[in-house]
Amino acid sequence: MREPNVQELKHIFRILLDTYGPQHWWPASTRFEIAIGAILVQNTMWRNVKISIKNLEKAGLLEPYRMYVASSEKIANAIKTSGFPRLKTDRLRNFLKFFENFSFDFDEMDKLETDSLRKSLLSVNGIGKETADSLLLYIFNRPTLIVDAYTKRFFLRLGYSPLSFKEKGKSQLMNALKNDPSELGEFHALVVQHSKAYCRTKPLCDKCPLSSICEFGGAYYD
User: Fold this and answer.
1) In 82-180, which ranges are continuous DSSP H helix?
2) Contacting residues for 208 by C-beta, under 8 A, at least 6 apart
């Protein structure tokens, strides 16, 4: 296993971008919708979340204060397709209680330094590292690497050490993309797209655009 290499990571990014094109993430109309989507997508597929978001919109709940004062039953009914509706309703309420401290204003939250903002988000019951980093990157435009199941599988199969996901390794990965939030956001979206297209649980290595530099795929197709 190897450590992150700037030139190789740039090469990987270019291949993914050339293969799939810009992904235009996060797919949402407002910052609040991004936050809701990031919480609802936990342990489910995005297509299920899209239905929940449409239901919330129809119910007039895609606005912070209106969701805040709505009954838990109304919210849970709207988000059923995302799975665990009661649990996720509680998580949405936890976030809204936290958000109330900033007068439901993302600009007020944005005044916090990145480390403080991340710690504050992680203090909310139901927001873990992956969700917090998604909010930092896609709402607040802060440079961070989202480490989810797709990211881990992607880099481990390429032959990178698990240490790549620790803070030092994350910094190297981020440096390869110039600590640019737009590139980091695009990279994460491309990794997700690639993981759905080829780097699945049962991968399709024979047609993968990264097979020539992938230890896992190369084991079969050298």
Assistant:
1) 85-100, 106-109, 114-122, 129-138, 149-158, 167-176
2) 198, 199, 214, 217
Neighbours of 127 (CB within 10 A): 22
From the centroid of its chain, how far is CA 195?
13
Q: Please report the domains of the chain, with CATH numbers, ordered by start residue.
A: 6-23+161-221 (no CATH), 31-138 (1.10.340.30)
End-to-end CA distance of the chain: 18
The count of C-alpha atoms lying within 13 angstroms of the C-alpha of 54, restricted to the half-sphere facing its C-beta, is 7
Choose among 135, 123, 160, 104: nearest CA to 38.
Answer: 135
Does the reported pTM lie above 0.85?
yes
How far is 168 from 50, CA to CA, in rounded Å?
35
Tell me the per-residue pLDDT of 44-61, one tens digit each, with 9 for 90 and over: 999 999 999 999 999 999
Using one digit for the tens of pLDDT, what is the confidence trace for 111-153? 999 999 999 999 999 999 999 999 999 999 999 999 999 999 9
Distance, C-alpha 167 to centroid of its chain = 17
